[in-house]
């Protein structure tokens, strides 16, 4: 493609312009009004939606069976003078650059990338909000054809308006990328906010216009181009320039033979990739003098020979040929005079020149490498490196000892990047800085909210329209990741993605407890989406129930802990408080760990006492440290209060927060009476599988909670059963999960001003009754009753609060209406069997605050059946009503 064939595209529309951009069009499309208006609109687009479109575009353009890929492979070798094989390598790397995961890594430098959408609790427990700088002009060089799009992507993911001035060396790749983007971006999420165009360096009028209109100019190029754009720049326009750089390698003398060979193999890639045209390409290698020098030279040469077969060079331009030939002839003469060694490629056009020198030598590129032998790496600092300080980029280094000393010394001379051989010309870490700066940081500004109330700046206060758009984009991203897991790939095989609305999400299959149990991480990785190191495994279930294990990545668990902290702050824990973490710890439980980190978010003083020890021991800690807040399970807090009452000790706790189950009014009254608590409230509604789900504000009554909408999405089915999705868990996704609780939506707006949905937690609906230290599982009850010949398998368990204790009623149907049995004797037998075989109502009877266990024997079909299904509601939990 040449300039005549090139189509200028402004904000998704192809312009009827022949040749380079005209002043008239530049004035119109770069006007302050257009750029400002578009910037406001693009800022409203959810970031997850942007990332997903970019990943799909990269996959589209790199699909080997597609038009774009075929055109690139056919035409780019001639345009770039890279071989077909080198272009194929670049296209293999390109989709990796634009995966959602790697795009998020790029954004790591700004903090939590969601801050581009809304205020979020991020660094140093502070609310953060990032906004784009506005409009960015990208001036890119043509030496690495992916570079222009790489720069553009940085502008897009920071939600800026982006104008890409393409290089005269390559009109094709940017054009194909934009065309592929337009094909993917059917809803015009990104394309209305970017343009690709061209004008020559001699067009002074347009350059004058752009230097006054844009908020930033991002320029990659030679010194002349950088100086040119700095000249005459308006006061409002920032310029971020990345001029020519030089990179080299260092091989130390303390290496083993295998390490020498491996380093040579790595450096060969750094020489061959991109024909040394990248700023990070290796042009010189310094090697400390030792018996390994010859081995390194031979190994490097052999690797260059091998790579010449894998990546043959294109026909070099005449100027390049002349320059390399001139260098070879000079070195041949020096070799004849015993001053160097020259090795010319047989399988390719590579050149290895060996000197005894401490100077960095500018290479004619195209696989021309200087091996400079030095006595010590310190000799390099006596050469010309000081004069080249501004031009330093990367040092590929391999050594066994004193690595830090060496790195620190090179930092003094301007080197900003260090890596191992083989990584110089390939970016292995998308979150790393470029030339010492984080590009994304340059293109955003962070909002200073000074001393405004943080509690009133969050997604909780955003309009429902904005939230729904953000949540839908998160769900689409989550579903895209989920289908990488074998289970979800099969489970969602009929689901068409992406979803167009939250209504469509209701058609996604519901995840039941049996799905998680059957695909628990202790049984395999069927629900795992990626390599699962750097993770936690937690259990969901009791010691006698069906244990389910779920996995969180480190980052996911850290984020869930921050979300807990948000709830703690909302409910009233402050930095002035001294708080007891009175959750139990161990046995794969999340609670203690999550609560502890959540408390850190409030800035309070934490006493990590746990509820693992006896109440007497806990009381001694309370007497010693005099906390004013305690966080724990209701049963543990009641047991503690009972012990305090029993031994007549004066301990007062101002605020008490509970979780795991509801606390009855009688229990609250008792605790207030014993501990003098002014506030008794739920600290969260959560589940191991999901993490935090709801939190209370001061205006929530009883079991009312707000949904933590930046962490999860909560629905209810026609029966009022809660269906929950964790928005941020992508390692072991939990999507549309029937959690086992009934809820009721509260339609009236909350007096706290939050727009986050509000619900009342009603009762459990599943196969477990949660108690204080151990639980009742239906499986255990069934196991007991199957050995009692007089009764049928049909039963119902009712649990209700009696003062600060609980009564449990077992309604059990007999096999026959007219059965002949001693009713009292049978009731006692069943009660004994239940207490003997079920720990929660036997050994843990007192600790679970059980008042009475009652057995009611009923004739067949006496227990009420549910609707048309004819099923018995096995558990009726009346503790919450």
Describe the structure.
The chain is of the alpha/beta class and 881 residues long. It folds into four domains: 9-242, Aldehyde Dehydrogenase, Chain A, domain 1, CATH 3.40.605; 246-434, Aldehyde Dehydrogenase, Chain A, domain 2; 554-768, ANL, N-terminal domain (Rossmann fold, 3-Layer(aba) Sandwich), CATH 3.40.50.12780; 771-877, ANL, C-terminal domain (GMP Synthetase, Chain A, domain 3, 2-Layer Sandwich), CATH 3.30.300.30. It is 34% helix and 22% strand. Strands 2-1-8-7-6-9-10 form a seven-stranded mixed sheet, with helices on both faces. The termini are far apart. InterPro entries: AMP-bd_C_sf, AMP-dep_Lig_C, ANL_N_sf, CoA_reduct_LuxC.
Keywords:
single chain; 881 residues; alpha/beta; Aldehyde Dehydrogenase, Chain A, domain 1; Aldehyde Dehydrogenase, Chain A, domain 2; Rossmann fold; 4 domains; seven-stranded mixed sheet; elongated; CoA_reduct_LuxC; AMP-dep_Lig_C; AMP-dependent ligase C-terminal domain-containing protein; NADP
What fraction strand?
A: 15-25%
User: Helix count, per DSSP?
Assistant: 26
Q: What is the CATH superfamily of the largest domain?
A: Aldehyde Dehydrogenase, Chain A, domain 1
Instruction: Work out the count of structural domains.
Output: 4
Number of strands: 40
Let me know the largest β-sheet: 7 strands, mixed
Task: Using the coordinates above, name the CATH class of the largest domain.
Answer: Alpha Beta
* Class of secondary structure makeup: alpha/beta
The name CATH uses for the topology of the largest domain is: Aldehyde Dehydrogenase, Chain A, domain 1
Instruction: Return Rg in Å.
Output: 34 Å
Poorly predicted runs are none
Mean pLDDT: 92
The helix content, as a percent range, equals 25-40%
| End-to-end CA span | 73 Å
CATH architecture of the largest domain: 3-Layer(aba) Sandwich
What does the overall shape look like?
elongated
Pfam families: AMP-binding_C_2, LuxC
Protein name: AMP-dependent ligase C-terminal domain-containing protein
InterPro entries: AMP-bd_C_sf, AMP-dep_Lig_C, ANL_N_sf, CoA_reduct_LuxC
Keywords: NADP
